[in-house]
Specification:
Radius of gyration: 22 Å
Helix content: 10-25%
Largest sheet: 6 strands, mixed
Number of strands: 10
Order of helices and strands: HEEEEEEEEEE
Structural class: mainly beta
Distance between the termini: 85 Å
């Protein structure tokens, strides 16, 4: 086999492998649902607003689809990291929370992952407009999902 034939075969092989990878495209992480809620007694009350009062405590639920997993002996291993930031109108981070390691083995594979957060809009947080930013990092798929939500904090009267 001469050098030109070897180069041609190598090039065709690389093109074929690249084409196969593109054909088996991984699904990106996807947000199924996102909402704020308040606990009233033992009842969860879903909030339709994104305006809160200083000192108010609310919960946030995010439902994420298309997450990665590894099939293991006792179920399905998932590995995700979640970051939460509150950013003021100038772009500065005024609150940050990191859930570093959420590597677990689940017996059954759910259709989506649920992320729960409790946020206290403290009295020290000035009234104004903010952006709530969630980053979900799937370590198995090596993909990231960013969820941004504009919120308004009203002054405590």
């Amino acid at each position: 086999m001469n050098k030109k034939t070897l180069i041609l075969i190598t090039t065709l092989s690389l093109l074929l492998l690249t084409g196969c990878r593109k054909g088996t495209k991984r699904q990106p992480l996807k947000l199924k649902d996102f909402y704020f809620y308040r606990v009233d007694g033992n009842q969860e009350v879903k909030l339709n607003k994104s305006e809160f009062v200083q000192g108010e405590t609310v919960g946030v639920k995010l439902f994420v689809e298309n997450f990665g997993y590894l099939k293991v002996e006792n179920g399905f291993k998932i590995s995700v990291m979640e970051l939460l930031k509150i950013i003021n109108s100038e772009g500065s981070v005024v609150y940050s929370k990191v859930e570093v390691d959420q590597t677990v083995v689940l017996k059954e594979l759910p259709p989506h992952l649920l992320f729960l957060n409790t946020i206290v809009f403290t009295k020290n947080l000035p009234a104004g407009d903010y952006t709530l930013l969630f980053e979900i990092i799937d370590r198995i798929k090596r993909m990231k999902l960013k969820v941004k939500k504009k919120i308004h904090i009203k002054a405590l009267i």
